[in-house]
Amino acid sequence: QKEVEQDPGPLSVPEGAIVSLNCTYSNSAFQYFMWYRQYSRKGPELLMYTYSSGNKEDGRFTAQVDKSSKYISLFIRDSQPSDSATYLCAMSSWTGGFKTIFGAGTRLFVKA
Amino acid sequence: GAVVSQHPSWVICKSGTSVKIECRSLDFQATTMFWYRQFPKQSLMLMATSNEGSKATYEQGVEKDKFLINHASLTLSTLTVTSAHPEDSSFYICSARDSGTANTEAFFGQGTRLTVV
Q: Which helix (H) or strand (E) holds B52?
């Protein structure tokens, strides 16, 4: 079992839809949770960073962390064609030395 | 957010030659930087952790003599692909954490597309 599971998609939605992206994980030591957006042939760009359980909102993006279920989500409201990219979840822990694990990434296509 | 600059953004080299890729943190100090490799439509594969002033820590299966890492200052890490072969062609990405904070989020460079012919 991978430490982080993320559906690679692709996920195709119409413009204006609400997008839900998810990751599950197995290591309860993870404390920090990130979402990155990566356009083709570019480095990943940090979108959201959260610590422990709860919600965090930034514009059209909302990140949710449920540590009891080992499940994190990223919601995109009013999706735009410019949101078309690969979204990677990542999580970090300090236990046994600092470690960050990335999900496989979900490819999102928003159709105009 | 913090800025990480990676150079060059793309490079083509002949088989058997060496290529150096630079990763710089522009507005923060980074005692630790990370080097990843990414194949098309796949996620990031951590190659090694670069530690300022000490030896890099390589992931299992990564040849340390082929992928030389030097982290000589708090803002610069370099990855040298030695005796490159076509199978080394890939997208290489670095990331860095701000050593001055307790936050763990990493900021990525733009990536370097290496093509070995």
A: none
- DSSP 8-state class, residue B31: S
CA distance linking residue B29 with residue B2, whole number of Å: 10
Summarised one tens digit per residue, pLDDT across range A78-98 is: 999 999 999 999 998 877 667
Chain A residues inside the 8 Å CB shell of B54: none
Distance from CA of A106 to the nearest CA of B (A): 9
Read off φ and ψ for residue B86, nearest 5 degrees.
-55, -35
The burial class, CB within 10 Å (0-12 / 13-18 / 19+), for A73 is middle
| Average pLDDT of the segment spanning B94-99 | 87
Whether the Cβ atoms of residue B4 and residue B23 lie closer than 8 Å to each other = yes
Q: In Å, what is the CA distance from A74 to each residue of A2, A23, A66, A86?
A: 20, 9, 12, 13
Query: Residue A109: phi, psi to the nearest 5?
Result: -120, 125
The CA distance from B117 to B14, in Å, is 5
For strand A85-93 and strand A11-14, is the pairing parallel, antiparallel, or unpaired?
unpaired
Contact B94, B34 (CB under 8 A): yes
A42 contact B CB<8A: yes
The HSE-up count of residue B93 (CA atoms within 13 Å, CB side) is 23
**DSSP SS3 for A32:** strand
Contact A43 B6 (CB under 8 A): yes
pLDDT tens digits, A26-81: 989 898 999 999 998 889 999 999 987 889 999 999 999 999 999 999 999 999 99
